[in-house]
Fold these 2 entries.
Entry 1:
Amino acid sequence: MAQAVAFDVLSDTQADMVDLDTALSALAEFGTADALFVNGDLTANGRVRQYRELFAHLAAAPHPPALFTIGNHDFYNHRTNRVSIDRFLQFTGMPGLYSAHRIGDVKVLRLGTLDGSEKSGHYVVLGADQLAWLAAELDTNVSAPVVVLSHHPLPHTVSGTYDDPVTQAPKMYSRDYAEADQLLTLLEAHPEVLFLSGHSHWNLSRADWFTRARGFAAANTGAVQTGFGPDGRGGERPHDGPFNQGLRIVVEGAAVRVHALDFVTRAVVHTVEFSADKTGASEVDGVTWVEALTHRGAAPKISRS
Ligand SMILES: [Fe+2]
């Protein structure tokens, strides 16, 4: 029997330390997972003091070893790409903008933009080397599934990224990746992939928070800071009131369960399960907060793959 591993996923903290503390406290309520993924927009503006504050709060709260991806907000310091990327690497300790890791039997691949200036008209430019590296990592993967972490959503995957201007935000999320077509083509050949994206802050209560329609699995990672939803005119607007969401993922062999969690109401919003070696996915009803957050693993360590 494969060893079960559990991952927590937060994104878009954007200097909201009160909600971060709440989320970390909730995730550790019944014992910590095996790894924490912080999927971009760690800071509001990529400032040193914001990184210091973030890591002080992380250090003060029980949580498992963490992996981080860079988000567009982490470039909003009016400095060069180099400064923002070096700052991100210095504070997070990540080995580069992109890297491969192994947690138990699960391969985890981090992606990151080489250019956060947005001068290209896109948030994300992966570059030929990163795309070739990703293709090689997927082709040589012997585990199932493989988790791919990237801050920005891909077109026609999760909430907000579809074309309907009433229920979606095509003005916002159709051009996040310069190489969207190449990345989608690559991922579509790998049904074992679970692609995790944040950035939109759209509510995990939506039915389109998760999809496997494109062959691979894609899940919205919610947001710690401020919720957003459609404005009915192809754009988006913020939610009123408190908002704080993330994921708990449990992998056992080829079986994957993804729990969408609301840290404000301490409730399981959705649970889906799928098998990395089969098509389709199914919604699981009635999963309780305790059931979602109770994990009995053997605490495997994160290692470079
Ligand atoms: Fe973002």
Note: DSSP finds seven helices and 16 strands in the chain.
Entry 2:
Amino acid sequence: MKSTDFIDYYNKVYSKPYDSSRWDPIYQEVGSHLYGRKILELGCGVGPLCQFRNDWKDYVGVDISEAGIKGARNDFPDLTFHLIDIEKPFLYPDYDIIVCIEVFEHVDFKRVISHLNPVEIIFSLPNYASHSHLWFPAGTKELHRAFDPLIDFDIIHTLEVNEVKKIWTCKGVIKG
Ligand SMILES: C[S@@+](CC[C@H](N)C(=O)[O-])C[C@H]1O[C@@H](n2cnc3c(N)ncnc32)[C@H](O)[C@@H]1O
């Protein structure tokens, strides 16, 4: 999928009511690590994680989809959202933890991580293909092979979508 097709795809997805409830166990797990933190969320979409906020110190969500950012601003008017392409360098706000849920399979994750400060990160990834996935780690070996050079991390949660499909949630620190 070309990146312009990808933006159109997500603009269409977010132009209709978006039901993210199947991913609630991921948001709950991620949310439980964010108390009192200054959060930068990459690829926030319409902001479903924000339903689970719990005394966050600060939060900024960024996404490349205009419809996603519009929906997030509408549902969470007290939080900050920016229309940004995370594959390009940009001036990130002050943050002490990065969250990135179901995004690294859609982008050049090495390039994205190269723009980030060496802080804590929580990210999730599926182990299965989809037309919008550029790449996916089929097993934990592939997951570690891809991210070990960039992040010291452990898997903290596994969502079994069905007998074969899984989503791993990982927590670690970006290597400086
Ligand atoms: C599977 S969705 C996940 C959205 C959100 N994290 C959630 O849990 O619903 C992937 C998101 O990544 C965003 N995205 C993809 N490429 C991007 C890029 N280069 N810069 C910023 N956001 C991007 C898409 O617009 C989309 O909102």
Note: Helices lie at 3-15, 24-31, 66-75, 109-114, 140-147.
